[in-house]
Amino acid sequence: MANSGHLVVVVGAGPAGIYGTRKLAEAGHEVILLNRDIKPGGLVEYGIYWNKHKMKEGIRKQFRQILGDARVHYVGNVKLGEQADLTLQEVRNVLKPSVLVVAAGAQGTKSLGLPGEEARGVFHAKDLVYHYNGLPPFSERPFDLGERVAIIGIGNVAIDIAHYLVHERQTPEVILVARRGPAQRAYTDIEIKSVAANFDREALDQELERVRPHIHVDDDGFVALHKALTKHVNEPGKEGVSTTRLTFRYLSAPTEVLSDADERVSALRVEDTTLVPKGEDFSARSLGTHYDLPVDTVIFAVGDSADAHLGLPYSGSAYVKNPVPDATNAGDEAYQVYDPATEQRLTDTFVIGWSRQASDGLVGKAKQDGERGVAVVQRFLETQASGSAANVGEKFAALEALLKSRGVRTVSWTDVQKLEAVEQEAAAQRGLEFFKHGSNAEMLAAIGAK
To answer: Which end of the chain has fewer CB atoms surrounding its CB within 10 Å, N or C?
Structure first.
């Protein structure tokens, strides 16, 4: 493919950003890929459970091929935002790209806004996931987790947290708290297998009987539901025996975090709910009664939000997308950023992946959304005069000089390859399947001076 003459800047080197970059490079565009972290990979590197090494490595091989393309210029260890290493406007001013594509993921935290959630012992799932997956600075933070932990949420992230608590922390008791019923669980079989052996079967049976009048299933449906919930409980675990007791609390909407005199979590107050039909599904309706779960730790696993400080128009928990339908290309507006203050589209700025819709799906969906979004970008570029890729080397040097003047040590794709080689050698020396440095300082030291 001949050079298109366009320079595109992609912010974020997770699945959406990297797979989107491949499509851009294949179309003949020069791509500068800016990444907050030293290593590329995003969700793959720091979201998938840490011991799924073969899965991670399979995807990394694809990423290596994409990032090795001569048209792709990787710049890691650069934080973008309003008070960070570089602002989005500075990116536009220095690099003058035809298009800016934001694929920075969902870096904001979402909570329920409960009274008392500032107590010691309240955490967000994303922070803990980053911690046990070795992402600095989260990998260096202590997490004061207690002995009786309530996880709010019942999706795959909640199960990953339970996995960590059961097998790594050996936490005495873990309680999964769900606003709706057992039939509305959002986790997959492959994830629940990791902790199913730790179900307290008697407690689960009692909990199912408690909610049975409210979950809209007949006798046969109840038997089938019970079978589905417990089908993996007798399967031998791959990670050894854990004595953790894992229980569920369904039809329970958290309303308050209670704390003791030392401002440590002492209980999670929940409001009992019942299911009411809503289209083809059910929603939770309050029953007006409450129950206090005695716990010393609460973890929110209720999804994440976009980073409100990145520098894009923001509302609620997401960046604002163009609300005006495009009659020619239906759906394009879902990717183009819109400024409600001026009531104008940011014609050169697009969002893809979790930056477009936070916490929506895993790697496969992020890849699909990144590629769909880039198809929208490509249609836009076909209407624009080329030339932004001219003197790309000079632009790149100007960016490097600006960041160096601010004390930022940028990381190239060559640097990443060197770091990977060092870590692979360290793993071999230690007899480990993989090895990962736990701090940015250690990674930069492994790469060497620049």
So the answer is: N
Please answer whether residues 37 and 53 qualify as being in contact, where contact means their C-beta atoms are separated by less than 8 angstroms.
no
Token duo for residue 271? 């409001």
Q: What fold characterizes domain 111-302?
A: FAD/NAD(P)-binding domain (3.50.50)
Rounded to the nearest 5°, which phi and psi values hold at 131?
-65, -55
Q: Where are the domains of the chain?
A: 7-107+305-411, 111-302
Residue at token pair 């060497």? 448
Helix (H, G, I), strand (E, B) or coil at 220: helix
Q: What is the 3-state secondary structure (H, E, C) of 342-382?
A: CCEEEEEEEECHHHCCCCCCCHHHHHHHHHHHHHHHHHHHC
Q: What are the CA-CA distances from residue 101 to residues 8, 91, 171, 306 (Å)?
A: 7, 11, 42, 14
d(CA 385, CA 6): 8
- Closest by CA position to 230, among listed 265, 266, 257, 205: 205
Contact present, 217 and 184 (Cβ < 8 Å): no
Residue type, 194: S
Per the CB < 8 A criterion, the answer to whether 35 and 13 are in contact is yes
Query: Where would I find the H helices in 264-412?
Result: 363-381, 392-405
Cα separation, 230 vs 223, whole angstroms: 11
Residue among 127, 387, 367, 116 at smallest CA distance from 254: 116
Looking at residue 289, its pLDDT comes to: 97
Looking at the domain 7-107+305-411, which fold is it? Rossmann fold (3.40.50)
Instruction: Give the residue from 310, 409, 313, 402 showing the smallest Cα distance to 87.
Output: 310
Convert the pLDDT of each residue in 343-379 to its tens digit.
898 989 999 999 999 888 789 999 999 999 999 999 9
Specify whether the CB–CB gap between 370 and 20 falls below 8 A: yes
Do 308 and 318 contact (CB within 8 A), yes or no? no
